[in-house]
Design a protein that fits this description.
alpha/beta, 6-stranded mixed β-sheet, 5-stranded mixed β-sheet, Pilus assembly protein PilM, PilM, 16 strands, about 350 residues
Length: about 350
């Protein structure tokens, strides 16, 4: 069941975060060490073929379910509870102001009434939930309420994949929300790589296979949210064209780091430059369409965030300090974790890490 309220409930049993993206399934399991310490108990990834997940929808159910089962076996986890995420494109969210005096039953009725104004299909076809954010700063006595709705089939397909792997879904989150939770934990760490002031604007960019998603944040408020189609898949296409390879061969060689010596200068560098310029254009559009004229930090995540030269290129073209985010900053590593592999791929696990954190965060 799609339930935003479950995001704020502590899960008493071990919980794995399972992020199903376009190119891989990623798993994270976390534990606590003392009052303030964290332990990365398990962390693993299983690749998916490009046509198994398309536009956030699971197209080849059996193949994806099989990949999840292989991932569970590879990780060695015994956990049966799972937190999953829907892609932001599959969820409609809206913040509304409602009277703080409403009872729970009255709040549910009012939420349905409000939701009908924003959802372009029948409420019978959706999973709808809400959470109370807190008192509304704009309207004394009222509360800010976050509504979230998704088509039932979108929620069902993820949960059915989990069930096929003998997992029980206890949290169904939104991918961008889970990622922001992981970012919040990192920035609160005493050894955080940057200090974010109260008025600072932070740009969170997830660079994936099918494109990049950009959010501009101030505290917990999302000021701007956009998705662009330039990502790792375009790099694979460029490799295939330049070296006369099939898409499958190009992707395999890219993942295995098995490309000719000319690759960094002839293929990678031009792609990185184009991607950085595209990010700069997206940021410029934010400036021209909002009252804001600057941002203070850019944080990169996703499987393609660690492309050689990308951090430097984005910083050069935007003039904004840029770094790749490590969601496991400050964590101890459990015995089952391959430390060198995790350090290399850490940025790809941001959403999965945020999902795993739902066990502990209210």
């Amino acid at each position: 069941m799609f339930s935003l309220s479950s995001l704020f409930q502590r899960q008493p049993e071990p919980l794995i975060g399972l992020d199903i993206s376009a190119t891989a399934v990623k798993l994270v399991e976390l534990g606590r060490h003392g009052q303030d310490g964290w332990v990365l108990e398990r962390c693993a990834m299983e690749p998916l073929s490009p046509d198994w997940v398309a536009d956030g929808s699971i197209v080849n159910f059996d193949e994806v379910a099989g990949a999840v089962r292989r991932l569970l076996a590879k990780s060695g986890t015994r956990a049966k509870h799972v937190a999953l995420a829907l892609p932001p494109s599959a969820v409609i969210t809206k913040k509304v102001i409602l009277p703080g005096s409403l009872s729970d039953a009255e709040m549910e009725i009012q939420v349905e009434s409000e939701a009908s104004q924003y959802i372009p299909f029948s409420l019978d076809e959706v999973q709808l939930d809400f959470c109370i954010i807190g008192p509304s700063p704009k309207s004394p006595g009222d509360v800010d309420v976050l509504l979230a709705a998704t088509r039932k089939e979108k929620a069902d397909e993820r949960q059915e994949v989990a069930e096929a792997a003998n997992l029980k879904t206890v949290v169904l989150d939104i991918g961008s929300f889970a990622a922001r939770l992981a970012v919040e934990r990192v920035l609160q760490n005493p050894n955080a790589p940057l200090h974010v002031g109260e008025a600072d604007l932070v740009v969170l960019i997830k660079v994936g296979a099918r494109g990049y998603a950009m959010q501009v944040l101030r505290d917990e408020e999302v000021l701007y949210d956009t998705e662009q189609s330039m990502g790792g898949a375009q790099l694979t296409q460029a490799i295939a064209r330049h070296y006369n390879l099939s898409q499958e061969e190009a992707e395999q060689k890219k993942r295995a780091d098995d490309l000719p010596a000319s690759y960094p200068t002839e293929v990678l560098a031009p792609f990185v430059k184009n991607l950085a310029q595209d990010v700069a254009r997206s940021l410029q559009f934010f400036f021209t369409s909002t009252p804001y004229h600057s941002v203070q930090h850019i944080l990169l995540s996703g499987g393609s965030a660690t492309l050689e030269g990308l951090t430097e290129a984005i910083q050069e073209h935007t003039g904004v300090a840029t770094l790749v985010l490590d969601p496991f900053l400050g964590m101890q590593f459990g015995a089952a974790v391959n430390k060198s592999r995790v350090r290399k791929d850490a940025a790809a696990y941001l959403t999965a890490c945020g999902l795993a954190l739902r066990r502990f965060y209210q």
